[in-house]
């Protein structure tokens, strides 16, 4: 019986700690230049669906500052995928189509400066639907976002800066100024899992980009350090 009590006690400690925080690392984009992370691998297969999730804590208190979280540029199109936020405004997700026009989705949720916020974006080529989830909750849905068009393979993934040509040509005032953690990309549309990811109730490991496993090259003063993320709470 004593042994059973110990096992139950250990289980309670484990489950409570899992739901309260997640020990991981953050990348801080603070240098005055163009801090960014380049991913070693590209996207290996064309994407018909995707889910992008990340934790972000912007630093800049100026409102209406555009900050790129992820930029995926292809030799044919520099804005094949573009995701980020605007301080005091909301979250954005752009897909550049074959005709070079951009399909934009902008949520209206205001991301708070100095506060960790969990963001997930899902997209489907089959329906053209994009959904934005903030702190585990569905916030906005958009239709006709690059309907019928896949995300092509062979591009470059950059975190923290907006590519304006394949692999570079960053511009001032569009880079991330803040902390980023647990950025993952899947090749499917997640839905019910998103609140569980926010609450750290299920393992988070993107099968296209994984924050812990994908090979990364850090440029221009990106700093990494340990962080305890607030599972299920924005703070
Ligand atoms: Ca761009």
From TrEMBL:
Keywords: Calcium, Disulfide bond, Glycoprotein, Metal-binding, Signal. Binds 2 calcium ions per subunit. Residues 22-231 form the Pentraxin (PTX) domain. InterPro entries: ConA-like_dom_sf, Neuronal_Pentraxin_Related, Pentaxin_CS, PTX_dom. GO terms for cellular component: extracellular region. Its main location: secreted. Residues 1-19 form the signal peptide. Homopentamer. Pentaxin (or pentraxin) have a discoid arrangement of 5 non-covalently bound subunits. Belongs to the pentraxin family. This is Pentraxin family member. It comes from Strigamia maritima. The lineage of its organism: Eukaryota, Metazoa, Ecdysozoa, Arthropoda, Myriapoda.
């Amino acid at each position: 019986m004593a042994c059973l009590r110990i096992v139950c006690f250990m289980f309670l400690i484990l489950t409570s700690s899992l739901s309260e925080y997640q020990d991981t690392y953050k990348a801080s984009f603070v240098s005055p230049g163009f801090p960014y992370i380049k991913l070693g691998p590209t996207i290996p297969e064309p994407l018909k669906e995707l889910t992008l999730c990340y934790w972000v804590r912007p630093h800049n208190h100026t409102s209406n500052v555009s900050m790129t979280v992820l930029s995926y540029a292809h030799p044919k199109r520099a804005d094949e995928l573009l995701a980020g936020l605007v301080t005091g405004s909301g979250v954005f997700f752009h897909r550049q189509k074959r005709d070079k026009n951009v399909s934009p989705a902008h949520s209206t949720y205001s991301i708070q400066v100095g506060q960790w916020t969990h963001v997930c974006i899902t997209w489907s080529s089959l329906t053209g639907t994009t959904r934005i989830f903030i702190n585990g909750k569905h916030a906005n849905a958009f239709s006709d976002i690059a309907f019928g068009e896949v995300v092509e393979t062979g591009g470059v993934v950059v975190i923290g800066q907006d590519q304006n040509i394949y692999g570079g040509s960053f511009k001032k005032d569009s880079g991330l100024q803040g902390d980023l953690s647990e950025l993952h990309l899947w090749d499917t549309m997640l839905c019910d899992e998103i609140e569980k990811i926010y609450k750290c109730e299920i393992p988070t490991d993107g099968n296209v980009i994984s924050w812990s496993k994908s090979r990364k090259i850090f440029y221009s003063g990106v700093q990494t350090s340990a962080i305890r993320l607030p599972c299920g709470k924005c703070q």
